[in-house]
Amino acid sequence: PFESDVGVRLVCSEFFFFQAEDGIRDRSPSRGLGDVYKRQFDTRENLQTTYDSITLQMHDARQKTKDTETQIKSVNEQIHYLGQYLSTKSTYNEFLKARFKGKFRKDHADEIEKHEKAAQILKAQNPDGSLPKMKDLKLEKERLLALKAAQYDTYTCLLYTSDAADEEDRE
Fold this sequence. Notes:
Shape: rod-shaped
Strand content: under 5%
Largest sheet: none
Radius of gyration: 27 Å
Structural class: mainly alpha
Helix content: over 70%
Number of strands: 0
């Protein structure tokens, strides 16, 4: 229902701001959001509809966060294998130039295997078969971490809203 995760966070912030403003105008002391909700939900159906909507939005926000965590894991894996590729590149180049490749491979089997495995994994993860640049991977990781933080804020905001509506339902 929301256009972006940042938009959701702003909506939640505005939501709480206006709710608090309504509570301030009230002359009787407020116990919190539960009192604010009492003035908004005139029927159990309205409360249930709002609660169901918030629950669905929470599920969506949690799923988006999990998807972002999966992307972060993939980028971390690429960073790992790119580091492995770069650290074994000179040995692999020596292997390619070696006169006695069998002996060189035997002497440097571990490094050559690491290099070939890293190259295979990195090329498989990129549609054009090229290797990513470390700078690009680190920028993508930063972007995803910021996105995850915003998504988590959205989820937390919805969770508190859901708890307040649930508390109203019990009263």
